[in-house]
Amino acid sequence: MTDHVLVEADGGSRGNPGPAGYGAVVKDAATGEVLAERKAYVGIATNNVAEYSGLIAGLAAAAELGASTVDVRMDSKLVVEQMSGRWKVKHPSMQPLNAEAKELAARFSRVRYEWIPRAENSHADGLANEAMDAGTAKKPDVPKTVKQDRVSPVGWTGATGTPTKLLLVRHGQTAMSVEKRYSGRGDVPLTEHGKQQAAAAAKRLGAMEGLIVDGEAAPIIASPLIRTQQTAQAIADALGGRVETHPGLIETDFGDWEGLTFKEAMDRDPEFQTSWLSDTSITAPGGESFDGVHRRVRKARDELIAKYGGRTLVLVSHVTPIKALLRMGLDAGPSLLFRLHLDLASLSIVEFYPDGNASVRLVNDISHLS
User: Fold this and answer.
1) What is d(CA 230, CA 170) in angstroms, rounded to the nearest whole number?
2) The CATH number of the domain covering residues in 155-369
3) CATH 3.40.50.1240 domain residues, the chain
4) Catalytic residue among 8, 51, 100, 251
5) 251 catalytically annotated
6) Catalytic residue among 100, 171, 288, 351
7) Mean pLDDT of all residues in the chain?
8) What does the pLDDT look like over 299-348, one tens digit per residue?
9) 356-365: b or e for each residue (b if 16 or more CB lie within 10 Å)?
């Protein structure tokens, strides 16, 4: 274990936004010995996103090494100043990354940030360029049965590769949803009407093409709560598949507001409730912030794509996680959480491409309930 380490991080984008990658190296602060290297292609992104991604990777590597004191050196003035607290984080796409980096930094006894010229950051810069080279060198496989001139809905974006298609299903009705109460981690079952909604959604998915390939049903992944389990099981029965769970798909932890109506929560904590509804970084009392949910769901998405990349998946979840996935697909800011409505047992579809592009194909479809 090395107590004091130096983290050098960098990121780049060829187009800004364009194909992007990051690099990070962790060194022993006393000897300069390289202890860890990290690099990855992040798809289509801006320089700032790539640079923050490099910092996050470097801090995570330092934590894995058991460091307690970290000196961060970067040639990104923006990241250094924002992480030092001297500049505000105004751009919505930067706020979750800044929060994730600060969450990692809080694990150490001290973290110091220093801006350095690009020439002094050549190790991390080289790793970032290697990542971009590797990412952009990949060529998509075009099946012989598909004509080269076929127009794709995302063709004009330049998206390449086989996407991972996520069919996002919200669970059916519960007693809490009937009464419009905050329902996060409370484990409540479906009502009889909710079971009928789940059956209708299952019938809809059972008739869709591409969910059964060579006799095998698409993976069905659900939040671990009973309302999503029951909805997912109805779909599994229709497809002849099985349900697996992922904790990252669980609903927001509403903490002390769990079980309260909106009015009851407002009467109890009027100023705090108003602030919480206007700032996604604020944590519900005893619970979780929407930014925290977004980071958790993004990690879950990345894990599922790493496991099932290029396939069609059925994800049965809740309002906030589904909105988070749609927000990622749209590359939208956090205000989307408050402007998008999702009905019970609704179906939404988003595709994530290996080059970082995405395509939202359907939002809040409830035609199967009519």
Assistant:
1) 11
2) 3.40.50.1240
3) 155-369
4) 251
5) yes
6) 171
7) 89
8) 899 889 888 988 999 999 999 999 999 999 998 888 888 899 999 999 99
9) bbbbbeebee
